[in-house]
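Lecture notes, unit on protein representations.

Consider one protein chain, 389 amino acids long.
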Amino acid sequence: MSDEGKKPQGAPEAEPKAAPPGDKPEVQAAAEKPAAAAAEKKAPAKPAPKKPAAKKPVVVETPYTLHVAPSPHVANTSLTTRGLMVDVVLGLALVVLAAVWFFRWHAVLVLAVSTVSCLIFEAIFVRMRGRQATLDDFSAVITGIILGLSLPWSTPWWICVVAAMIAIGLGKVIFGSLGQNIFNPAMVGRAFVMVSFSAYLGAGAYVDPHGAAQSILSQATPLTAARTAGTMPELWFLFLGNTNGSLGETSALASILGGLYLVVRRTASWEIPTAMVVVLAALAGAMQLFVGPNPALLAMKMTVLEHLLSGAFLFGAFFIATDPVTSPLSRQGKFYFGAGVSFFVWLLRTFSNYPEGLMFAILLMNSLVPLINRWTVPEPVGGLVPKRG
């Protein structure tokens, strides 16, 4: 037997031959695999790269707390709807006390029936819409108090009930309840009963020919006297409230003190009453300058202070026109709103058949609030976003 093909003992193993260049790629790859495996065994293993350590968040301690929430953005998070309403009730307390002082049990009856009726109709109408009644926010209480203060002392109890039903039903709940109504609810109820039952709420309803025990009940209201006789009570009586009229409009002092409380508490906007006072004073002063001593209308003889202190002007300026739901949002819009209310008050007092024009003036300006908001959109910080071409 031949020894060819046998390897001598101790001879080194021959390295695998590389495939010639002309071989096929499969053959060449098969020949290179053993060499690559041997090289991997000889080469030292590389350590795995270390992951960078995660950065810790930087915490900066400040004395302020940043609250992230959707609009509206309120600086004082302790402000609530109930708290604002309680402030309004406290501001109205002086006006209520003055009404009870001058009109006695007449005022108690009208205010009680109006307030209780508003609470009852609030519960009924909200339940009819399938929602839970929220009587504890005091919004219905304020509507009832303002409604009662806008009525004469002689208002029958059933008219108070009808006015409360219209104020809550048509003035508030039909729009979606609190915060969504367009018109002031109390003024909606007051206007309805004023037009529907004018015999009970007209100028003659304020005068009691048998009211000898209370002298003011036998007097005509100051605005009625100004239109019919061209005379007015003394300014001191108008300021204190010793005059006839609706329950909340007699004492200018009570309205001023209660209104200033709301302004200081920032519950009411100061821009609206300021604009109302300035514009009415300017219009009344201009009227005095341009008309002679014998004007065509007796109402034109009213002085600036008589316009400001008589009627429900100051009561409406602080407690009705400043309703945050039915007044403009921007500061500029609030000035326009107050100026418009005063213009209509002066116009209706001077040229219409109604001695007092505050109720209609506020309702007219309530209807213009969406347009005023659109006209007076404040410019955002950094300017307006440029429009794309």
